[in-house]
Amino acid sequence: MEIRLKGLEETKEFGIKLGNILKSGDIVCLNGDLGAGKTTLTKSIGLGLGVTDYITSPTFTLINQYNGRLAVYHFDVYRLENVDELYDLGFDEYFYGKGVCIIEWAEKIEKLLPKERIVLDIEKGKDIDERVIKITGHGNRYIEILKELERN
């Protein structure tokens, strides 16, 4: 599935819609160049999950936790030196826990990711505010999420 978003408002609406769909244990992988809008989309997904705190990118801490209708674990693995750092954080407790994981730069840790996940590859569009999101994934939850997105 491919979605074209024209501006911040459409990005916010899409993120909120996705956040409303997400359930306990879901993994959302965000890939894209610097400035593509991964953190902006994460903030909107957080709104859909009921997060009221200000969401920032955990670039130097690797993970931030937020509370909403579910726990939200926001990973940014851009500066990850090696996967051992994730082992030190106990990543599997997050990935296989009851919250929702949103992982920026997920392609860097693809080997560690659970099989069931949704992947959003974000690219800048023709216009400065346009974003193109290619949605792929693996597993039953991915299929369910796609159906929900298409329905709404």
TrEMBL record:
Q: Report if keyword 4Fe-4S is assigned.
A: no
Q: Which domain of life is it from?
A: Bacteria
Alphabetically ordered keywords of this record: ATP-binding, Cytoplasm, Magnesium, Metal-binding, Nucleotide-binding, tRNA processing
Where does the protein end up? Cytoplasm
* Keyword rRNA processing tagged: no
Membrane spanning residue stretches: none
| NCBIfam families hit by this protein | T6A_YjeE (TIGR00150)
Show the PANTHER family listed in the entry.
Answer: TRNA THREONYLCARBAMOYLADENOSINE BIOSYNTHESIS PROTEIN TSAE (PTHR33540)
Q: Which family does it belong to?
A: Belongs to the TsaE family.
- According to UniProt, the name of this protein is tRNA threonylcarbamoyladenosine biosynthesis protein TsaE
Protein species of origin: Tissierella carlieri
Gene for this chain: tsaE
